[in-house]
Fold this protein.
Amino acid sequence: MRQALTAIVLMAIAAPALAQMTPVGQWHSIDDKTGEAKALIRIVDNAGALSGRIEKTLRKDAKPTCTECQDERKDKPIAGLEILRGGKQVEGKELWEGGKILDPENGKEYRASLTPIEGGKKLEVRGYLGPFWRTQTWQRVE
C-alpha cells in the first residue's frame, strides 16, 4: 500500500514537468541580437500540427501591421498574426519539424524546428533558409 501511494505521489509531481516538454503554451520571443523580449506568442496543437500567433507586441517601435508579408497576412495586424504553421513532433524526440515560421519584420517565411530545452522553460526556435539558419531562444510564460 505504501509503495502504491509513493508511486502516485511521484507521478503527480512528475506529470507537470513532463507536460511542459512541448512547444505548446505561451512564450516571450527573445530578439537574438538584443536579448530583449519582442512579443508574446501562443502556440497551440491543432490535431498534431502546431500553430502560433502573436498575442501582443512588447516593443514600442513595433509596426502595427505586417507590411512586409507576401501572402494573405499582408497588412494584417501584428497582434493576432499567425507566425507559426505546421510542425509535427519527430517520433521519439522532443523536436518539432516540418512547419514554417514567419518573421513579420521582413515578411519572410522559413522552415522551422522547435526544441524545448531546460526542462521546457525555454524553446529553441530555429528558422532555416536553404543551408543557413537563425536561432532564437524563447522563454516560457505559462
Observations:
- The helical segments are 2-19.
- The radius of gyration is 17 Å.
